[in-house]
């Protein structure tokens, strides 16, 4: 289980079990960027007018890629 920490060009989630940080790009969440709106007041991401993700929300993430040169981990949200 992971928790959403930040929202910029994607979701930054923290793995609860070990504290690792995983980046989930917006492009993997929805195929139409114009239908995605970020609310800075709620710190939430809306897709097609419905709240999809919010800071602190628990989500399941699948590991997609580990970039050793940048020390980053990329994943996909499992629905």
Automatic annotation (TrEMBL):
<protein>
    <recommendedName>
        <fullName>S1 motif domain-containing protein</fullName>
    </recommendedName>
</protein>
<feature type="domain" description="S1 motif">
    <location>
        <begin position="9"/>
        <end position="74"/>
    </location>
</feature>
<dbReference type="InterPro" id="IPR012340">
    <property type="entry name" value="NA-bd_OB-fold"/>
</dbReference>
<dbReference type="Pfam" id="PF00575">
    <property type="entry name" value="S1"/>
</dbReference>
<dbReference type="GO" id="GO:0003676">
    <property type="term" value="F:nucleic acid binding"/>
</dbReference>
<dbReference type="InterPro" id="IPR003029">
    <property type="entry name" value="S1_domain"/>
</dbReference>
């Amino acid at each position: 289980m992971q928790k959403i920490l930040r929202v910029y060009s994607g979701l930054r989630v923290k793995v609860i079990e070990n504290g690792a940080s995983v980046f989930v790009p917006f492009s993997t969440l929805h195929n139409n960027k114009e239908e995605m709106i970020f609310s800075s007041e709620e710190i939430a991401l809306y897709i097609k007018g419905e709240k999809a993700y919010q800071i602190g929300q628990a989500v399941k993430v699948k590991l997609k890629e580990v970039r050793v040169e940048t020390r980053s981990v990329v994943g996909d949200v499992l629905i």
